[in-house]
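re the bet — no i am not wrong, look at it urself. input seq straight from the record:
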Amino acid sequence: MRSLIINFLIHLRTIVFNFSSWLPEVLSNKNFLTRDVIAGVTIAMIIIPQSMAYATLADVEPVYGLYAALLPVAIAAVFGSSRYLATGPVAMVCLLTSVAAGSLADGNKDVYILYAVMLAFTVGIFQISLSIFKAGKIFDKIPEHVLLGFTSAAALIISFSQLSKIFGLPSVTLDDVANYSNFLNQYPVNHQSLMISLVMLVLMYTVKYKYNKYLTFSNLAVFFAVVVSVTYASSFSYSGPIVGYIPNGLPNFQLPSFSDFNSSIPMLVIHTVIIAFVGFMEAIAIAKQLYIKKPPKDSNGVELFKNPTPVDSNQELFGQGLSNLTSSFSGSIPVSGSFSRSAVNEASGAYSGLSSIITMIIVGLTLLYATPLLHNLPQATLGIIVIFAVIPLVKVKEMRELYVQNRASGVVCVLTFF
């Protein structure tokens, strides 16, 4: 019994002070520090517009996305195991949060954000508990073909959910779809919204894929779309929906209140488990994918640096759990590791979690001083940013190849998709 307690305490010490494996090294090496600063600034230029877009996917105001892109980003990096994983609002978790908070609130918009914040808190507690009791290995056993079908289907659902922003329409319900002629008579398509969506899509595609030999430039495709669309909406008579007023200043940090909770506790538990599992599956998948990549080599074929510390599921659960807790303390929504931002973080030369701390600082400065600049940001731009980010996750070719190579796994993948 004594040995179990000692091992448990050692495990706690390891997961709490994991950052000591890289922080002293980075602070004492000018090259590593420079790389992290460059990567951190690059991710900040991406996460600011993305977090606002994903917040609308969760049916909350864009400012809540910025709150979720503040402390959670740094906390996950400091206490996680991956040196590249970029945490914050992500499309899939925001979609699940929308479903969960909507179900718990039962149509009451006054308590919707309260339930979204509660979910961030309960998801964080659940993930931390799994980490402390070393349950992270559960996620190593989930078949990849199940994840492939699930992520592809979710990406399509997310894309369709953004079409109302593209056309400058209010949120569309199933009844509106059934009576689409009456709906369109009442709310005609805004042609300026549609135009700016298409132009921003072409701009982002061109910058990201046609100029990919200029890595830093191509990674800022989303940032350029925001700058161009805000400039257009501010300079001309743009008639489409815009983001509007965003309160400046840091969030009011406090424990979420459960005193107003009057929904079903079993439903809260079910939604918590779903968001925690799906969110972490996304995070650990990209963390492991980036870890196995080989370090770049110089002209003599010598690796420029050692492989970073291994990715550990339990350590990553602890980091993700703490980041969700801090998101709830910030009055915001559940978060997870991002496929796209993590890949950009690694490609931008990040060496450690310090890059995410740099990102947090820039998001904080934006909240303090720059939110008025985002007032005229078209909602259509946020919608097309989400679609541009998730469409690559619809992997029809990979599903077809899987079916040819292994019919049983392919069938499971297709069934998961539908």
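see?? The chain has a mean pLDDT of 83. told u. also The beta strands are 87-88, 336-337. so pay up
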